[in-house]
Amino acid sequence: QAQLVESGGGSVQSGGSLRLSCAAPGYIYSSYCMAWFRQAPGKEREGVAHIDSDGSTFYADSVKGRFTISQDNAKNTRYLQMNSLEPEDTAMYYCGSGPLCDEWNYWGPGTRVTVSS
User: Fold this and answer.
1) 46-99 pLDDT, tens per residue?
2) Which of 16, 23, 107, 111 could connect to 77 by a Cys-Cys bridge, CB 3.0–4.6 Å?
C-alpha cells in the first residue's frame, strides 16, 4: 500500500517555527486531498489543515494565521509551515491523503513536534 513520507518534526521554543513535509506517490499527490492531523497525549486526533486537489485550503481556527500549506510539484511534496508555535501545538503530527477531504486512505508514520515555553 502506498505510504506517505513525512519529515520535519522537532523541538523548538515557543514562538519558533518548523516545517513539516509530506511526500506522496504521483497519483496520490496530483488527485487526492492531503491533510495534516495532530494528536497530543491524552487527546483525540484533530485535523489541522488540508489542501484539496484543486488547491483550496482549510485551516483549523487554532492554527489559522500561523500555519500555511505550500507545495513543490516537482517533488510531489507538500509542506506545512508552522510559525509562532505554542506549547499547545505539541503533538504527533500525521499527514493523510484520500480521494476526498473527509476520507483518508493513506497515512504517514507521524512526526513529533514539541514546543517548550
Assistant:
1) 999 999 999 999 999 999 999 999 999 999 999 999 999 999 999 999 999 999
2) 23
Question: How many CB atoms within 10 Å of residue 35?
Answer: 24
Q: Are 6 and 22 in contact, with CB atoms under 8 Å apart?
A: yes
How many CB atoms are located within 10 Å of the residue 79 CB? Answer: 18
- pLDDT tens digits along 27-53: 999 999 999 999 999 999 999 999 999
CA pair distance 38, 45, nearest whole angstrom = 6
| Rounded Cα distance, 52 and 44, in Å | 23
Residue 104: how many other CB atoms lie within 10 Å? 20
Alpha-carbon distance of 14 to 31, in angstroms, equals 36
